[in-house]
Every structure is written in C-alpha cells, then in structure tokens.
Amino acid sequence: MPTPNTPELSPAHEQLNARHQEDLEARAISIDLAVRAGHRSVDAEEMERHLGFKVPSEATGRLIPYDKHYARVRLDDPEVIGMQARYLSPKGLSVPLYLVPGQQYDTAPRIYVVESADKALALCGAGYTTVGLAGVTTTREAKRARVSRRLVEAAG
Prior knowledge:
The protein is an alpha+beta fold. The chain contains 5 helices and 7 strands; from the N terminus they run H-H-E-H-E-E-E-E-E-H-E-H.
C-alpha cells in the first residue's frame, strides 16, 4: 500500500525541455517531482562537466543526479555519440543506488527496490518509498556487497 512519502514539490518546468517533459510524463513521472529531484535538460558542455569526459558537441540529454557528487545522463540520441547505450555515467566510478531526494527511508514500513531512477521516481510519485538500481550490468557479483551495504545504510 502506498505511503505518504512524496517530497514537497516546487514548479520549475523551465529546467526541462518539451521533449524531456513528454518523456517523463510517458513514464508516469511528474515534471515537478523530476525537477525537485534535480533532473534537467543538458547540452554537451554540461554533460562533460558532470561526466568528466568529452562528448560530441551535438549530444543532448537529461541529467539525473544521484547525489551531490554523482550524476548520469539519459541521452536523447545515443547514435550521436556512436553508442547503443542509452545512459552515460562518469568513467571509472561505480553507479550508486538512486535514493529519491526527500524520501524518509528510516521511517518507511517498506522500501521497494526497482531497476532505474525513473521507475523509482514514478513509484515515489505514487506514494511508495523506493530505491533505484542502475541496471543489470551495474550490479553484477563484484558489486553486490556494496549494493547490499547501501540498502542497509539507506534503511537506517
């Protein structure tokens, strides 16, 4: 059953372009919630600042902050950079758990673990306390202990 654990919202739609707003709405994610969580539209220059490596100047995407020191980018068109991968992450860093800003993990009766920050946000918007994993390739055997430790830390 959903819990009343959705962060307070503040409208700032100008941080997301129309394409990203449509994409979020198609994923059942409130624009206000995405903006509150720090999501925003970025160009190649801003991507490079967050990722720490060069991308083609025509690359664009949606920045997904995980915390103050880590963010991933969901690319608008992976072919622009010659890749099939939809997401870019800072090189050499493990992908942390996605903890939705403002959720009270220590008092939640249940915490739902889902695959992706977007699914975590969508379920948060529906009142569930969620944690997002970045995907199958980022949580293989070698990283399982770190993921388990972060889940325990998040739960208090």
